[in-house]
Specification:
The protein is built from 12 helices and no strands. The protein is mostly helical.
């Protein structure tokens, strides 16, 4: 199947992938602004960073679960992540053209979601400390952030592959993935910002101009 045939037959799935990551980024932007923007009532009500991370993890985990189990998510497979798409391509589960268009859609959809939130929320979302919900290394530095991203990405993909191969656990793959998102945001985000997703990190880095550490999230 060439590029034209792929676009003709599978363009709805590509649009779903763009919309799914875009929706995820809208949720991340709204949640991040409510929890971290100076002057936010929710931030003032939760002065403990760990409590805010726990709430953010719950919100984003539920967002992931909802997207994965939605009718649209079931149609496209709800990759929402170039790392997931490339893994499935490597395993022969996705054709090369489909993988390329999935990845392109994920990058464009994520960026569109971030720009939408920037337009709606303005300075509280654009300015530090929210800074377009950019993923940045924590105080431990770039090397630790890279190692942490490598480990959590491997852990997520291993869990997804293991669950989808099991007749018993396959129906719960989305729940497992969402639970890991929640746990990682709470426990790992102080190290790397918790991305696991090159398109997600690019979507925030591009409008924020935060290019210095993007290589971590593209490679790890």
């Amino acid at each position: 199947m060439d590029a034209r045939q792929a676009l003709r037959h599978h363009w709805p799935e590509y649009l779903i992938e763009a919309a799914a990551l875009g929706t995820f980024m809208v949720s991340a932007g709204v949640v991040g602004t409510l929890l971290e923007a100076p002057g936010s009532p929710l931030r003032d009500a939760l002065p403990d960073p760990a409590a805010r991370r726990a709430l953010a993890g719950l919100a984003m985990g539920l967002t992931a679960i909802a997207l994965i189990h939605s009718p649209w998510g079931r149609r496209s497979g709800a990759h929402m992540n170039p790392a997931v798409t490339l893994t499935f391509w490597r395993l022969g589960k996705v054709r090369a053209w489909d993988a390329m268009f999935y990845v392109l859609a994920q990058f464009l959809g994520g960026l569109a979601g971030v720009l939408l939130v920037a337009g709606l929320l303005g300075a509280p979302f654009r300015d530090a400390p929210v800074l377009y919900v950019a993923t940045l290394p924590g105080p431990a530095g770039g090397a630790i952030a890279f190692a942490a991203e490598l480990l959590i990405s491997a852990g997520m993909m291993a869990a997804v592959l293991a669950s989808t191969r099991s007749a018993r656990f396959a129906p719960y793959t989305g729940l497992i993935a969402g639970l890991l998102v929640a746990v990682y945001i709470f426990a790992e985000s102080p190290l790397s910002g918790m991305s696991m997703n090159p398109a997600r990190s690019f979507a925030s880095a591009a409008p924020a101009g935060a290019w210095q550490h993007l290589w971590i999230y593209l490679l790890a």
